[in-house]
Amino acid sequence: MKTIIALLLTALSLSATTVTSVTCSGQTATVNSTAHGLVASQGFELTGSSAQFNGTAYTVTTNAFTFKVPAGTACSTYTSGYTAVGPAVQIAMSTSVANPNNATVTFSYLQWFTTAFPIPLACNLGTLGTACPVSLWVGADAAQNAAIVAGTTVEMQGGFTVPASTTAAQVQAMAITQYNAMQVGYAGYLLAGGFCYNGTAWTTTCQ
């Protein structure tokens, strides 16, 4: 089963591309990176000499994309120290359990959906009862956990049971199909939340 876990994570990984610059307009940052391969509402990872940052692509062109800077953070924070960008992890296999009585295997996994209209999770590190939530995946790094708290990444658990004769490639395909079907809802803002009705229209401005 370890082979399946490794293959699934590899299948979802694409090569990072070089970041030529990051510019700002208000609280919107533009990442310039030739042929980055991201699509709107896809999660990404910025890396370099600065701390890794995970976010969600907002508007996208072939060689650039924008993202919304987290509230309370200066956009200028992202204009230096980042040299590469790549897609964020979307699925992480967590456990697999054999069922000898009926010759099946039950897989459990975590899915990380992304949205351009996040709902931040309230938390306060160090304060009893309000510690920031973290991923159920023990391999999650600080940037991935921060994206969950920021609401740009929404973690959900999933799983399925298949015949023991199922191949690794078939398991991967099933997990990816499930993920893609749900991500459509987040990309279309159907599942993102963050909307308020003001008596006339629905709006993302709830203050």
Describe the structure.
- The strands form 4 sheets. A 4-stranded antiparallel sheet has the order 1-8-4-5.
- The chain has 2 domains: 14-87, Elongation Factor Tu (Ef-tu), domain 3; 91-186, no CATH class.
- The longest helix has 20 residues, at 168-187.
- A hairpin with a 4-residue loop joins β9 and β10 (104-114).
- The chain has helices at residues 2-11, 142-150, 168-187; strands at residues 17-18, 21-25, 28-32, 43-48, 53-56, 60-61, 64-68, 82-87, 91-99, 104-114, 153-163, 196-197, 202-203.
- Helices cover 19% and strands 34% of the residues.
- The chain contains 3 helices and 13 strands, in the order αββββββββββαβαββ.
- By secondary structure, it is an alpha+beta fold.
Which helices and strands occur, and which strands form pairs?
Blueprint: H1 2-11, E1 17-18, E2 21-25, E3 28-32, E4 43-48, E5 53-56, E6 60-61, E7 64-68, E8 82-87, E9 91-99, E10 104-114, H2 142-150, E11 153-163, H3 168-187, E12 196-197, E13 202-203
Antiparallel strand pairs: 1-8, 2-3, 3-7, 4-5, 4-8, 6-7, 9-10, 10-11, 12-13
Quick take:
This protein is α+β, with helices and mostly antiparallel strands. The protein has helices spanning 2-11, 142-150, 168-187; strands at residues 17-18, 21-25, 28-32, 43-48, 53-56, 60-61, 64-68, 82-87, 91-99, 104-114, 153-163, 196-197, 202-203.
